[in-house]
Specification:
Radius of gyration: 18 Å
Largest sheet: none
Order of helices and strands: HHHHH
Distance between the termini: 74 Å
Number of strands: 0
Helix content: 55-70%
Strand content: under 5%
Length: 107
């Protein structure tokens, strides 16, 4: 007689979300992926807590942290849109630096 489990994922406690922080050399995209992976496993997390924790977990002086402090998003969608904008800027800056470093070797 076989037993089947309908839900094999164990819910994550909110403390795990509260323990996430951005590493000093970590990209925003990497941090964002880790944060949302954990957030999606938490069974019940109030929006205001999730937004506040996202901001607090960013490095002090990070442009996104400053942006959230100056103009706090009030919905998860607004937070995600703002994060996406900052990821695009960060990635553009990385591509520009790589292109500059490559071109500076030519001259």
């Amino acid at each position: 007689f076989a037993r089947f489990r309908t839900n094999t994922k164990t819910p994550v406690e909110i403390e795990q979300l509260l323990s996430i922080s951005m590493g000093k050399k970590e990209t925003l995209k990497s941090y964002d992926n880790r944060y949302w992976k954990t957030f999606n496993q938490v069974t019940d997390c109030p929006t205001n807590l999730a937004i506040a924790q996202y901001k607090q977990s960013l490095l002090v002086g990070h442009k996104l942290r400053d942006s959230i402090t100056m103009t706090p998003p009030f919905t998860m969608k607004a937070l995600m849109e703002r994060v996406h904008q900052h990821i695009l800027v960060e990635e553009d800056g990385m591509h520009t630096k790589i292109e500059f470093d490559t071109n500076s070797d030519i001259g």
